[in-house]
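Last lecture ended with a question: if I hand you only a sequence, what can you say about the shape of the protein? Today we answer it with a concrete record. The protein is Class I SAM-dependent methyltransferase. Below, first the input exactly as provided, then the predicted structure, then a couple of comments.
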Amino acid sequence: MWDARYADEYAYGTQPNDWLVQRFADLKSGRCLCLADGQGRNGVWLAEQGFAVTSVDLSPVGLEKARALADSRGVAITTELADLATYDMGEGRWDAIVSIFAHLPPALREDVHARAVRALVPGGTLLLEAYTPDTLAQPGRGGPKGDQAAMLMRAEYLLNDFAGLDVLHAAETVREVNEGAFHQGLGAVVQFLARKPGS
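The predicted structure:
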């Protein structure tokens, strides 16, 4: 599905996510891992801000578009083709981890988030935005629907998933999302920012 979605256009646009732009200054500078980065709009923008970015995604078509976008912007990113179910993030490896609309089944989400906590360096930061179940009542087209609705997130889920981090922000809100053809209109989202204890 993702290869087909990414084949012809930048499905979610080429501009970074609004929440990322709003709070990226709170991220620890250095090595940044972008989870499910698709066609690279967020990873490439972070590279433009000086981060050493690794974008991971399961779509080779998406990552090819990410590399092309990076080239067009005059920056470099590392891309890794992988399924988050089996991707090794390492331990104490990343200064920042970014997860933008990376919706996963609940058990896998909990596992990926636990691995992300271990993968951050002390003082490392994690930024996430995802759709909540409330988005199903909104006119926008973003987020999982139907039998995939269990992948939608709540702030309480994230507070549990990231219990090992110091939470800087965790809130659900409704906002206008204008990100390419597939994220348009009002969306109910959860926005999350946290830091790993330590120096």
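Comments.
1. Residues 170 and 192 are 4 Å apart (CA to CA).
2. The chain is about 25% helix and 30% strand.
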